[in-house]
Design brief:
CATH topology of the largest domain in chain A: MetI-like fold
Largest interface: A-B, 105 and 115 residues
CATH topology of the largest domain in chain B: MetI-like fold
Order of helices and strands of chain B: HHEEHHHHHHHHHHHHH
Radius of gyration of chain A: 25 Å
Helix content of chain A: over 70%
Helix content of chain B: over 70%
Distance between the termini of chain B: 48 Å
Oligomer: heterodimer
CATH architecture of the largest domain in chain A: Orthogonal Bundle
Radius of gyration of chain B: 25 Å
CATH superfamily of the largest domain in chain B: MetI-like
Largest sheet of chain B: 2 strands, antiparallel
Strand content of chain A: under 5%
Number of helices of chain B: 15
Structural class of chain A: mainly alpha
CATH class of the largest domain in chain A: Mainly Alpha
Strand order of the largest sheet of chain B: 1-2
Number of strands of chain A: 0
Shape of chain A: globular
Distance between the termini of chain A: 21 Å
Strand content of chain B: under 5%
Number of helices of chain A: 13
Chain lengths: ~300, ~325
């Protein structure tokens, strides 16, 4: 892959090698790694602090100590018992929405991505540009009209609010775009072979193309799940029923209910971040590649 | 007759058989309907709403023309929102880009633990804005980690000289609230910018660097004379994403300062203003007008940047 490039950390090796320069380089190198490690720590410390604080008592929570004294589950218990709606309900609501949105993005995104990449039909380029153009439209501009549309469809009240949010997030232009780009990179030979065997377009899509696109499907699944799980704006607009709230909405409210009672508040923060953290630990590659690919122009 | 047959054959060659056309439309149907109704259609709908007196239930009332826009552009709070968001963008965009580029160059170099550092730098971007903002509020409160750490590191004299006491309430004072939110977002999104830059860095061919090395260019020159200019399309993309994100500031401002952008409107943003108009004052037509103005601002900013960075060069 990539070799030494213009990295300030690692000076060019073609520079003459003198003992003194060598020591200087080693020193600079150590300094470089020191800086990198410190910066990496800066990324983690606030989260570690959250978890630590959630196991502290209230008076202990404002002390600058890294080991809770005493270690207590009180914060977690309060987070689970004192809130209305209960935290587990919010967790479930978030899971329902994020799970559904992940499935719809993978299914609808791959269907449209395949069509835009491979099938020839009139208006294809124009329609694809139309889809990409929606990335230019800020969500906030859509706030009032989309709310009115949901109201007209009856999706702004009661349990149908779930359907409203899911419909808004059902498929993103990014999902369609990412999958189209991936399908474009798959060699045509396999499809030709399937065609000769008498497979139709839908069979070819389902049996040949989808299995080949699994890395891209995984990236889209991860990005969609993360987006929906973390999403704040649309649930805030649509979910006026307290019982339907997602974790981010609840968290905003609990901030005022718990006010400065940090241990239970930090327990909720930790709980809200946990699923994404687990996904990130296992599927870091797909996060990174998905984000990077969505930024590369087609 | 022969001409018609030729035309049909040409059509089939260009677009495939009727079956292929049908399959194409069938596969894009649902996403397309959603995009047409909820995206494209909603812009037009917003335009319509903004020029009528629009009731929460019941829809269009009297036609008011540009009245909402005139009122909006004269409103002091809206001016404050624009001022805040522009200030925010002027700080956050350059810092985010510089930090993103620096991290990308570092992670792209041959260093030990490359994967680890890449994962670490992107880490703050994975959490939700709500979780990270509440966590940030905790860290920045008077008895929080930030004030504790700067005391422990002996940095308090510097802060004292800048006029901040040892128990300064960062999000609670009008003078530092916006700056704190800037720091929060630079911290959380620089990893994303790093990934955007990284993708472009990896697409630069190694031969260019080989040539530079043979010519005796050092790392510093290679970066400024070769890498930086070759990244022009990436600069445009990152700048655009960053500016759009800055103009749409909402979650952190709302969670940090409530719907009025406390303290003293220091966190009032355009989108917060829009949200208030729609859901606190229930003035939908006015809110729709705010949305249209925001769209015009974002679109204008993107066009300006395109001029600034030029068109994508031929070698990309």
């Amino acid at each position: 892959m990539t070799r030494t490039q213009a990295a300030p950390l690692r000076p060019d090796s073609s520079v003459e090698v003198a003992p003194v320069g060598d020591r200087g380089r080693r020193f600079r190198r150590a300094l470089g790694y020191g800086f990198l490690t410190a910066y990496a720590l800066l990324m983690f410390v606030p989260f570690a602090w959250t978890v630590i604080t959630s196991f502290k008592t209230q008076p202990d929570s404002v002390r600058m100590t890294f080991i809770p004294d005493p270690i207590t589950l009180e914060g977690w218990q309060r987070a689970f018992n004192e809130l209305n709606p209960p935290v587990m309900q919010l967790f479930l609501n978030s899971a329902i929405i994020a799970g559904t949105v992940t499935i719809t993005n993978v299914v609808l995104g791959s269907m449209a991505g395949y069509a835009f990449a491979r099938l020839r039909f009139p208006g294809r380029e124009f329609l694809f540009l139309l889809v990409l153009g929606t990335l230019m439209i800020p969500d906030q501009l859509r706030m009032v009209p989309v709310y009115q549309i949901m109201q007209t469809l009856g999706l702004s009240r009661g349990d149908l609010q779930y359907a409203g949010v899911i419909l808004i997030l059902a498929v993103s232009a990014t999902s369609v775009f990412l999958l189209r780009q991936y399908f474009l990179t798959i060699p045509r030979d396999l499809e030709e072979a399937a065609k000769i065997d008498g497979a139709g377009f839908f069979t070819t899509f389902w049996r040949v193309m989808l299995p080949l696109a699994s890395p891209a499907l995984a990236a889209v699944a991860i990005l969609s799940f993360q987006g929906a799980w973390n999403g704040f704006f649309w649930p805030l607009i649509i979910m006026s029923e307290r019982d339907n709230w997602t974790l981010p909405l609840g968290l905003t409210q609990f901030r005022f209910e718990f006010f400065t009672q940090w241990p239970p508040l930090m327990a909720v923060v930790a709980l809200a971040t946990l699923p994404i953290l687990v996904l990130y630990l296992f599927f870091q590659r797909y996060f990174v590649e998905g984000i990077a690919a969505s930024g590369v122009k087609g | 007759m022969a001409a018609a047959a030729t035309r049909r054959r040409r059509f089939v060659i260009r677009y495939g058989s009727g079956r292929e056309i049908f399959a194409g439309y069938a596969l894009i149907a649902i996403p397309l309907i959603l995009f047409l109704v909820l995206n494209i259609g909603s812009i037009l709908f917003a335009l319509v709403i903004s020029v009528f007196e629009w009731r929460f239930r019941g829809g269009a009332g009297e036609f008011v023309g540009p009245g909402n826009y005139e009122r909006l552009l004269a409103d002091r709070t809206f001016h404050k929102a624009i001022y805040n968001v522009v200030t925010y963008a002027l700080w956050v965009v350059p810092l985010q880009m510089a930090l993103g580029l620096l991290l990308a160059v570092i992670v792209n170099a041959k260093i030990r633990g490359q994967t680890f550092f890449r994962a670490a730098f992107y880490f703050p971007a994975i959490a939700s804005s709500a979780a990270i903002t509440v966590l940030f509020i905790f860290i920045m409160q008077p008895e929080g980690l930030f004030n504790g750490l700067r005391a422990a590191l002996g940095l308090n004299p510097i802060f004292e000289a800048l006029g901040f006491g040892p128990r300064h309430n960062w999000l609670g004072s009008a003078s530092t609230a916006l700056g704190s939110i800037m720091a929060l977002n630079i911290w959380t999104t620089s990893g994303t910018m790093m990934l955007f830059y990284l993708a472009s860095l990896q697409s630069i061919s190694r031969e260019v660097y080989e040539a530079a090395r043979i010519d005796g260019a050092n790392a510093w020159h290679t970066f400024w004379r070769i890498t930086f200019p070759l990244l022009k399309p990436a600069h445009f993309f990152v700048a655009t994403v960053s500016v759009i994100g800055a103009l749409q500031l909402f979650d952190q401002a709302y969670i940090g300062g409530g719907s009025t952008g406390d303290p003293n409107f220091s966190l009032m943003s355009i989108v917060l203003y829009l949200y208030n108009a729609a859901f606190k004052q229930v003035n939908l037509d006015y809110a729709a007008a705010v949305g249209i103005v925001l769209f015009v601002i974002i679109f204008g900013a993107t066009l300006v940047q395109r001029q600034l960075f030029g068109r994508t060069p031929a070698w990309q």
